[in-house]
Amino acid sequence: MVSDSLPAQVRFVIEVPRGGFIKWGADGSIDYVSPIPSPFNYGSAPEHPGQDGDPADVVVLGRRRRRGETEVMSVWGRVRFLDQGHQDDKWICAARAPRRRERIALEVFFRIYAVPKSIIGSFMKTGSSRFEGIELRA
């Protein structure tokens, strides 16, 4: 069960549309290239600082959205993720509670995503990355 530290709703900005491979940085540079297409939209919540000091990361379930699109949506939980030695959870946003297949897709994607991130972290000596589970609101 997720703690009450998550907001009920959040305004997000899409950085990677569902099906995309490239995560763009705020300055327009390429931040990361995924080895597999994202099965969901990925973005950030500019008004909420994340554990790493950047805006909180969000995964947005549902239809494909355009890069730069903004919306306010409910936060249903979080993907617990360690990114190169630092806690970097991703808030799960959707119009409705995540379905079982969506939870499975999140788990599979982040388990795979952690592998190249760990390799990069090992090479750069910045620490390991790993998927640590999914927490949902009761």
The number of helices is 1
Order of helices and strands: EEEEEEEEHE
CATH class membership: Alpha Beta
Q: What composes the largest sheet?
A: 5 strands, mixed, barrel
Please tell me what the overall shape is: globular
Biggest sheet, spatial arrangement of strands: 1-4-5-8-6
Second-tier CATH architecture = Alpha-Beta Complex
CATH superfamily name?
Answer: Inorganic pyrophosphatase
Radius of gyration: 14 Å
Runs with pLDDT <50, length 5+? none
Give the oligomeric state of the chains in this entry, treating copies of one chain as homo and distinct chains as hetero.
single chain
Number of strands: 9
Count up the domains.
Answer: 1
> What share of the residues lie within helices?
10-25%
Query: Can you give the mean pLDDT?
Result: 90
CATH topology description? Inorganic Pyrophosphatase
Strand content: 35-45%
Supply the helix-strand structural class: alpha+beta
Distance between the termini: 6 Å
Written description of the protein model:
This protein has one domain: Inorganic pyrophosphatase (Inorganic Pyrophosphatase, Alpha-Beta Complex). The chain has one helix spanning 100-124; strands at 9-16, 22-24, 30-33, 41-49, 55-60, 70-83, 86-87, 90-94, 130-136. By secondary structure, the chain is α+β, with helices and mostly antiparallel strands. The chain is globular and about 40 Å long. The termini are close together. The strands form two sheets. The protein has a five-stranded mixed barrel with strand order 1-4-5-8-6. The chain has a two-stranded antiparallel ribbon with strand order 2-3. It has one helix and nine strands; from the N terminus they run E-E-E-E-E-E-E-E-H-E. Helix content is 18%, strand content 42%.
